[in-house]
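Hypothesis: this fold can be encoded by more than one sequence.
Test: take the structure tokens below, design a sequence, compare later.
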């Protein structure tokens, strides 16, 4: 899909989301997820993880009666983006490929791989699906910020500009 088509498709999906679900002001992720879950007719559970297999930041699990978003417990802003990325997959009804990888089995060791495969039906997405989800997450975050980039936290007195930038990277 050419970039222009990708951008247009993602913009249309986010505009539909804004019309049909809304984006709360001020943006509170839990409020947005409640609205999104109500729109989908399915509750959403968040499962934060401290240790997620390398190369994986988040995961959407579609159970018969609800959705689960497993995500890396990172900085608050990064965690929010990971969750919005998974919302992008849901919004686009991405199906992915049908196989259960070793990373997923390690992430969910208490679940039978056959059950994971049945419930999930996929463990990976195409490059296009990943691009769509990533762009949608970015567009939702931009809408949430009123079209402006999120502001950095105020400077901390006594820190050099370099250390202050580093500090602000890891805080919301």
């Amino acid at each position: 899909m050419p970039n222009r088509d990708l951008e247009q498709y993602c913009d249309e999906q986010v505009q539909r989301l804004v019309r049909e679900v809304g984006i709360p002001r001020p943006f509170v992720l839990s409020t947005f997820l409640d609205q999104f879950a109500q729109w989908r007719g399915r509750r959403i559970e968040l499962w934060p993880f401290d240790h997620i297999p390398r190369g994986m930041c988040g995961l959407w699990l579609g159970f018969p009666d609800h959705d689960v978003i497993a995500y890396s417990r990172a900085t608050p802003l990064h965690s929010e983006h990971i969750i919005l990325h998974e919302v992008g997959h849901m919004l686009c009804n991405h199906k992915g490929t049908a196989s259960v990888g070793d990373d997923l089995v390690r992430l969910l060791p208490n679940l039978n791989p056959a059950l994971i495969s049945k419930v999930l039906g996929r463990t990976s997405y195409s490059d296009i699906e990943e691009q769509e989800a990533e762009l949608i997450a970015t567009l939702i975050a931009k809408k949430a910020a009123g079209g402006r980039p999120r502001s950095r936290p105020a400077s901390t007195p006594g820190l050099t500009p370099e250390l202050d930038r580093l500090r602000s990277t890891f805080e919301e």
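Residues 5 and 129 are 13 Å apart (CA to CA). The longest strand covers residues 43-49.
Hypothesis status: open.
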